[in-house]
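BACKBONE GEOMETRY TOKENS
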Amino acid sequence: MIGRLRGELVAKHPPQVLIDVGGVGYEVEVPMSAFYDLPGVGERVTLITHLVVREDAHVLYGFLRERERVLFRNLLKVTGVGAKMALAILSGMDAQRFALCIEQEDLTALSRLPGIGKKTAQRLVMEMKDRLADLGGSGAPLVRGAAEAVGNADESPLADAVSALIALGYRPADANRMARAADEGDMSSEEIIRAALKAVNPV
């Protein structure tokens, strides 16, 4: 099991990053709640990781905070929630916001997340209530940092944002609509994604 990676951040293509660890490049899926706080390309980064083994692939998921990984692992235990949906949940809201939604049984906010309908939201509330203690602690609230420039300069930030939203589980038409509505013309892909997700599920 790969539990942690420390190395140079080589590329950022939300929600995936590439980290060079001793000459070996690791592709890691990162929730947008953590992606916003990543350092710039070329800088060193440490990610706490969780390895998901499937029949067709081994997929690494990375987090900046242990609280995020704990939530991710607990979400995987919920009936009908896979790694992709867990990543989408953590991209739509941070661990503290999610815990609050569970505590308050806020089905409306949970249902705004991609791939989560009313029944899944109800199941999340029912099965996660007893696990809220795992998300506790005295740490400061998660604060999203300033957006960094992403990827190659030749790539369109809007196209990158649409691709990222699709990877998070939104339908292509919805991802395109959300990104275009959020784009103010001079934004990075991360800024577009953050604005699009905030519009869907405001804090």
